[in-house]
Amino acid sequence: MSLVSGPGRGGAATETSARQLQLQVEKHVSYIKSLDTRRDELEYWLTEHLRLNGVYWGLTALYLLGHPDALPRPDTIAFVLSCQCENGGFGAAPGHDAHMLYTVSAVQILVTIDALDELQRDGRDGRQEIGHYIAALQDRSSGTFAGDEWGEMDTRFLYGALNALSLLHLLHLIDLPLAVSHVQDCANFDGGYGVSPGAESHAGQIFTCVGALAIAGRLDLVDREKLGRWLSERQLENGGLNGRPEKLEDVCYSWWVVSSLAMIDRLHWIDGSRLKEFILRCQDAEKGGIADRPGDMVDVFHTVFGIAGLSLLKYENLIEVDPVYCMPRHITKRVLDNS
């Protein structure tokens, strides 16, 4: 899956505004399917460090659009498995070092296409290898997680660890109460959460912290009134959402903010109709894809999070998304209930 931007631009449709304000499902499906054909473009190779994430983004968008078979399942499995390293983790592409973020995407992809059994190959117990790789990245003094062996720590990695391990039914491998304690240490006076204790509240980090607490069954620790107020204040006059005060709107926050509001039962605190219109104005209704804001080039990252945001807002005919995992809810329910 290529992370190449374009060729279209958000709001680029020359047809009537009525067409622009309808989700162009078939155009988006065609756009995503075309991404891996652009290998002669320099940007395809410059974004190789995001290749596995890109497969997750594209695949999830296709599932939410109701086209689960748009990507060839055998090829998808083969690529994911080719990214697994000897230490059990996954790299962005074959030959890349393992990292938490790529490992989480690999697990999400395999769960989505019901291919976790493919990990048990060539005499390897792939599930356990992944679990032990992730567990070894936990800092047993603070509870947080590193992204890889080089030690950068971030609440994104903590959330990713809980996401993947819960899908694999391996949460027992880590000190979950200590991880929860670290999330609480990242809480701020405004109700939000930062990347680390004392860091500024940011919508993306709020999603990771609230999502981690949801997986741990500790949403009781969230100050829902304060956090709901902070998140609802992210909506701007044009209907879009920003990630923190005084920043521009961006379609990706249609996921980070809205999913967080959904998890704390405060989704009704924003104007969903205006947000839907903003997201739809960011799509290229002729060539497919969604951009960060109208006039900018589309890419698969903003495409999936725009579609996921619309799903949370109950846009017609979209598959329901799980606000905790950013995966189809019927899939996470099947996997998590099968303990």
Strand order of the largest sheet: 1-2
Number of strands: 2
Contiguous low-pLDDT stretches (5 residues minimum) are: none
* Helix-strand string: HHHHHHHHHHHHHHEEH
Helix content: 40-55%
Rg (C-alpha, Å)? 19 Å
End-to-end C-alpha gap: 32 Å
Biggest sheet, in brief?
Answer: 2 strands, antiparallel
Question: How many helical elements?
Answer: 15
Decide which structural class fits the backbone.
Answer: mainly alpha
As a percent range, the share of strand residues is under 5%
Fold topology:
Blueprint: H1 17-20, H2 25-34, H3 42-46, H4 51-64, H5 73-82, H6 100-112, H7 126-135, H8 155-167, H9 176-185, H10 203-216, H11 224-232, H12 253-263, H13 272-281, H14 300-312, E1 321-322, E2 327-328, H15 329-337
Antiparallel strand pairs: 1-2
Describe the protein.
The protein is mostly helical. 46% of the residues lie in helices and 1% in strands. The protein is built from 15 helices and two strands. The protein has a two-stranded antiparallel ribbon with strand order 1-2. The longest helix is centred in the first third of the chain and has 14 residues, at 51-64. The two termini are 32 Å apart. The model has no long low-confidence stretch (mean pLDDT 94).
Task: Summarize the structure in short.
The protein is an all-alpha fold. The chain has 15 helices and 2 strands. The mean pLDDT is 94.
Descriptors:
single chain, 339 residues, two-stranded antiparallel sheet, mainly alpha, globular
